[in-house]
Specification:
One of its GO terms (molecular function) is tRNA binding. Keywords: Coiled coil. It is a single chain. The chain is about 45% helix and about 15% strand. The protein contains 19 helices and 19 strands. Helix 3 packs across helix 4 and helix 11 (about 310-355) packs parallel to helix 15 (about 460-475).
Length: about 650
């Protein structure tokens, strides 16, 4: 989010949401707060994020229910100080600086008592609440001490100062166009000398003036072409030109659709030839910048055009969802790998102990052999004899324990054999449990590998399935619960109750992967073990066909067959292909798939989610590369 977009967002906030009462403040994550504003005619949520790569300020939808608003003290501090105040001002305290100041007071007629500063500066982004009278910081999203910055410390109780101004001139400072062009030309030449190669006038423009980003210059140049006077015009009157967005394409852009004029490359000659003596702000100039006719531009303005806040919110919401999905996937992968490594080590140790337990028979045979020949040791007065093994007929050297007679040594060996047997029996359930846990985690790992992040926002099914995997691992004690786990579970429970009250049971099936067979039947595929469990034991009914690939971790698949009808062979093959595709048998060209009736499924007592026993089954062979999912993936590939 560059200065131009931030300026446009602040301008729209000032125009549409001032004055507004602050009714509620929530902190949805470590770097995002949401303020509920209410005006005379509307109410909405102001989202402010100081995320290092997704920092933004815009109006947006209400926060997702179950967010960890109680887990962060900064949101509580803001709520205690600002709840009930009135937003009176929204704007940039310094021109062309990436800082927005929100002024608040108890009443619309009172002077501003608090200022909420949003500093949009990449990894240095921050949100700070400052008392207007004392100039002291009351709360900070990120506190910066002397060890982090010697230039500017931001700590609660300290004085607040605006960030140092960015290098360069105010774009509106040069009064004449000749001076403006001269500044850009000289800066471009100096930049070229420093780099040892020719620099473009766009690079010189970014270096010469404050708050001018490369993206803004590129966009302006694509629209203004060789008419540099129009570029200067837009920078001198940003509130009139820059807030215009390309709403038709749904993309964040500082201006309208690109024009057809070429972009100049020479940093001096073409710039000077484009200079004009007057500084016009006519509708024709705006149309040239926006790539539209004056009439169409005026029509857009009369119709309201659209909201930059909606575009900014849509863009950054999807971006944050992508990043959140990636972070959660990475955390789950780490937890799975750690748990699997620990279980495999435990299983190896248990098997080694079990091998020792299997030596009980050999120990007892040695004790029997020693007891039968105890008199020989006494007669010959020795501690070591070669005795014939009754089973093999070979000689075995039997040595008595130090300081013990033959009988005492044999009794000790009998006791050791009993312990070995007991140990072997006690280790069997532990080995079985470890093997079951490893198989379960491999199922979870397969589900995680199959999930692909949807890039449309936090409400997409894949993200919900990913959070379901986290809940699985936390419930199984394979990873620690996140700080907001209890609050998220509380919110999810409220959502399930609301769905139950509304009676929208069919809407709950949207959580599963859904496909349509050649005959029009619905095929549902689970995304994680919790969904697999629900699909097999709650959604499945008599007459449906349940499937799971044999010998590989994979998803449960359900072919829903309407009552009184039967599934065609091509429908069963379609579902079998999907079951093979959503499993670790995907690389195989052909995989066996278990086919059973839901009435033949049994959940073992004490089993983990997604684990079933099948009483009666038959086998079909699925072809992963022929599945509907494989065809969809191939069609979506670039």
């Amino acid at each position: 989010m560059d200065t131009a977009q931030l300026m446009a967002c602040a301008q729209e906030l000032q125009a549409g949401w001032v004055p507004a009462k602050v009714e509620q403040i929530l902190q949805t994550d470590e770097q995002t707060i949401c303020m509920r504003l209410r005006t005379v005619s509307a109410s909405g949520w102001l989202h402010i994020s100081w995320h290092p790569t997704s920092f933004h300020l815009c109006m947006g939808p209400p926060p997702v229910r179950g967010a960890a608003s109680e887990a962060f003290s900064f949101g509580e501090q803001l709520g205690g100080s600002l709840r009930g105040l009135v937003l009176l001002q929204a704007g940039l305290p310094q021109p062309w600086e990436r800082v927005v100041a929100l002024g608040l007071s108890s009443r619309p007629s009172d002077p501003i008592s608090h200022t909420l500063y949003f500093e949009a500066m990449g990894r240095y982004s921050n949100v700070l609440l400052v008392d207007q009278d004392s100039g002291k910081i009351k709360a900070a999203g990120r506190q910066i001490g002397g060890s982090q910055s010697r230039l500017r410390q931001l700590q609660v109780g300290g004085s607040y100062h605006l960030p140092p101004p960015a290098p360069g001139l105010d774009p509106g400072q040069p009064r004449s166009e000749a001076d403006w062009v001269d500044i850009v030309t000289k800066t471009t030449e100096q930049l070229g000398d420093q780099k040892g190669r020719a620099a473009s006038w766009q690079q010189g423009l970014v270096r010469a003036f404050q708050g001018v980003s490369p993206g803004l210059v590129k966009d302006l140049a694509a629209r203004a072409g060789a008419a540099l006077s129009l570029v200067r015009l837009a920078l001198r009157h940003p509130h009139r030109y820059i807030p215009y967005l390309d709403l038709a394409s749904g993309q964040i852009s500082v201006l309208g659709p690109p024009g057809t004029r070429s972009v100049p490359q020479n940093p001096s000659d073409e710039m000077r030839s484009s200079a004009t003596p007057a500084d016009s702000t006519s509708s024709a100039d705006m149309a040239a910048l926006n790539g539209t006719s004056p009439n169409s531009q005026q029509q857009d303005e009369d119709q309201g055009g659209g909201s930059i806040h909606a575009l900014v919110d849509g863009y950054f919401r999807g971006r944050q969802a992508d990043e959140g999905w990636g972070r959660l996937q990475q955390r789950l992968n780490k937890a799975l790998n750690t748990a699997l490594k620990k279980l495999e080590g435990r299983l190896t140790s248990l098997k080694q102990q079990a091998d020792t337990g299997r030596q009980a028979d050999a120990t007892q045979r040695s004790a029997d052999l020693l007891m039968a020949n105890a008199f020989r040791y006494e007669e010959e007065g020795t501690r070591e004899l070669d005795l014939e093994d009754w089973d093999t007929g070979s000689l075995r050297t039997i040595v008595l324990d130090e300081g013990k007679s033959a009988v005492e040594t044999a009794e000790g060996w009998y006791g050791r054999a009993r312990k070995q047997r007991r140990a072997g029996k006690s280790l069997e359930p532990l080995i079985s449990a470890a093997q079951g846990d490893i198989a379960y985690l491999q199922e979870v790992q397969a589900s995680l590998e199959q999930l692909q992040g949807d890039r449309e926002g936090t409400s997409n099914p894949d993200l919900a399935a990913l959070q379901g995997i986290q809940d699985e691992l936390v419930a199984g004690r394979f990873m620690k619960a996140p700080a907001d786990a209890a609050l998220a579970a509380k919110g999810a429970a409220k959502g399930r109750k609301a769905q139950k009250r509304s009676g929208s049971a069919a809407a709950g099936l949207d959580r599963f992967r859904r496909f349509t067979s050649p005959s029009g039947l619905t095929v549902l595929v689970g995304r994680n073990n919790i969904q697999n469990d629900e699909l097999s034991h709650r959604v499945a009914k008599d007459g449906d066909i349940w499937m799971h690939v044999r010998g590989f971790p994979g998803a449960h698949t359900l072919l829903q067959v309407p009552s009184g009808s039967e599934a065609a062979e091509e429908d069963v093959q379609c579902a079998a292909d999907l079951a093979a595709f959503f499993s670790k048998a995907r690389p195989e060209g052909r995989a066996p798939v278990i086919v059973a009736s839901p009435s033949d499924l049994h959940r073992p007592k004490g089993s983990r989610p997604g684990q079933v026993m099948v009483k009666k089954e038959r086998v079909e062979y699925g072809r992963p590369d022929k599945s509907l999912a494989a065809a969809a993936a191939a069609a979506a590939a670039p």
